[in-house]
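Case study.
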Amino acid sequence: MSQMLQIHDQLREMILSLDLGPGERLTERWLESRFEGSRTPIRAALVRLESEELVRRDGRNWIVAPIDLGELEALAEFRLPLETTAVRLACTRASAADIAGIEAMLDACQAGAPREEWHRVGTDFHVEIARLSGNPFIVKAISGAMTRLSRARWLEVWTEPSREQAWAEHRRILSFIKTNDPEAAAREAADHISGTRDRLLRSLSEDRRGLKARGFAVVGLR
Amino acid sequence: MSQMLQIHDQLREMILSLDLGPGERLTERWLESRFEGSRTPIRAALVRLESEELVRRDGRNWIVAPIDLGELEALAEFRLPLETTAVRLACTRASAADIAGIEAMLDACQAGAPREEWHRVGTDFHVEIARLSGNPFIVKAISGAMTRLSRARWLEVWTEPSREQAWAEHRRILSFIKTNDPEAAAREAADHISGTRDRLLRSLSEDRRGLKARGFAVVGLR
DNA sequence: TATCCCATTTTGGTATCCCAAACAAGGCAA
DNA sequence: TTGCCTTGTTTGGGATACCAAAATGGGATA
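After joint prediction, the assembly is written out as follows.
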């Protein structure tokens, strides 16, 4: 694999894991020493990450994309029609094996699992559901949206009951697809998206002071 | 403006105008002489275009993305929920001035206008409608989808009545937004997307032989 | 004539070099 | 002390140099 792709993946992971703080400045020279490669592959990786909007330009400089709480609502508004469409399509197109695969994914995430695992599965669930639609554009759009949500979701203060609720909703969506009830699945998906949006917004706006204290650039949400 | 952006825009235009044929190989050295720049900005532009999927890798090489007739249906399936959502939102969010702007755009495209103009406005209309939704994610998704459709739409054999019909539909969508009738606007938008999809598929699959004769890589649509 | 093999060329990937613009620090004058 | 200008440093943008892998082509051989 080319160095550019390696650097891209590592940098991406560092950003999503908040190892690099939102808003933090990235200089090509620092990355050069950090990854022990020359600027050429580093710059290519940055250009790539820029198109994923994980990295952004601030004047002439590179910065890690800040977390924009203001876009959380727009993101939910965007996901809603797409995911309801996805689950409807999934009802007609998903095979039993496909569904079983996602069930297994949810099952694998038990109470004792580390937080990273819960976070990852909670994101992947939506992408995998989108995949059941068989429409690559829907998959890509949802995948991008979940990536954009990823860091905010990680910062959310999870309570046990809210986590339980989200999981129950995931299971219900899947079971409606399994029993081939597109409208119920769509309704459930819509409720889930609205519900998680509300929980996320509440949690983050309450904790906003704490986020700033940790040095994260968090913008939006007047 | 940086050389990289200039090259990106020019190359983008050459691809979308079919000046560079779908499937055509691009070597960095050829681009180097074509744009009289070094490989550094050229590679950056290529990486950027790759993320827009206008350019793609074929093994180690760069090629202009082929036109995939098979994705036209998926694209319509993707646009449908997004654009119906967009027009519904537009009803509550668009100002009279916004709507007048789009009307002016349609008016500017009279019978004598060159084909490029019709093509451009026919694409931009959908993006501008999306913009009325006020949701940047919807705008970006629609914009990307229309870009992906652009070359296929250019190759479509337009008949006078089909063009007229498309224009009438655009006007109807807009007027329903203007009179604040979200459901009618959504229905109209859905019909429009399905209708143009059908026309496009019919036209291109009939003319497929002709496309290949022109040396374009056209894949999909079994 | 068809096929295989090796020399040559071409290609993309990477490292390095140079430059102009942006930035920061320090000193000078009011 | 404050504001401004100078100057040295750092940065990203671009050009060039080098390399290994892949492609190409031509000639020897069967």
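Observations recorded in class. The radius of gyration of chain A is 19 Å. The interface with chain B takes residues 40, 43-44, 47-48, 51-52, 71, 74-75, 77-78, 80-82, 84-85, 89, 135-138, 141, 145 of chain A (CB under 8 Å). We will return to this complex in the next lecture.
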